[in-house]
Write a structure and sequence with these properties.
The structure is a single chain. This protein is of the alpha+beta class and 153 residues long. The protein folds into two domains: 60 residues, no CATH class; 80 residues, no CATH class. Helix content is 43%, strand content 24%. The protein has a four-stranded antiparallel β-sheet with strand order 3-4-5-6, covered by helices on one side. The chain has a two-stranded antiparallel sheet with strand order 1-2. β4 and β5 form a beta hairpin. α4 runs parallel beside α5 and α4 packs antiparallel against α6. The radius of gyration is 21 Å and the shape is elongated. The N and C termini lie far apart (59 Å). The relative contact order is 0.09.
Length: 153
């Protein structure tokens, strides 16, 4: 059985629920119990409450970042003033406050690169391209910092 419905709430195997303020996936259903991916079990009624708690986290945060990732990343404001997250490393700090077009330019791509994506996705792709170029030695951190400072003028 891959899903069950209790009091108009459907639970499915693989669904993430919030148990003790930690996200955990539903692994299986066994009688009146719901087995979790962390090896523990909770009652079906507690699973419904855990699913509701997870849904509330999504409403409260209004973003797509998983709760477990939020603990690792720094919460910052994007160039548009919206909430965003970054790694908090030297590259992330150098590029904070720049918009997607500026970051795409620093990465060395045409402004139309990734134009089918939203600004956050464009920025993420460009940042990943910059990280890859730094790793390969085709770009330096000094170049990125200087370019970012120039873009802020």
């Amino acid at each position: 059985m891959n899903s069950i419905t209790i009091n108009n709430t459907t639970l499915t195997v693989g669904q993430i629920v919030l148990v003790n303020d930690k996200p955990v996936a539903i692994a299986a259903f066994a009688g009146r119990w719901v087995k979790l991916a962390n090896g523990s079990s909770i009652s079906r009624n507690d699973a419904v409450l855990a699913a509701a708690a997870m849904a509330q986290v999504a409403v409260d945060t209004k973003d797509i970042v998983k709760p477990s990732y939020r603990e690792v990343y720094d919460r910052v404001k994007s160039a548009s003033g919206n909430r965003s997250y970054d790694k908090g490393d030297e590259l992330a700090k150098a590029l904070r406050g720049l918009d997607a077009d500026q970051i795409v330019d620093i990465a060395g791509f045409e402004p139309s690169a990734w134009s089918h994506l939203n600004p956050g996705q464009r920025s993420m792709n460009a940042r990943n391209a910059i990280r890859n170029a730094i790793r390969k030695g085709t770009m330096t951190m000094k170049f990125v910092v200087d370019s970012a400072n120039h873009a802020r003028r």
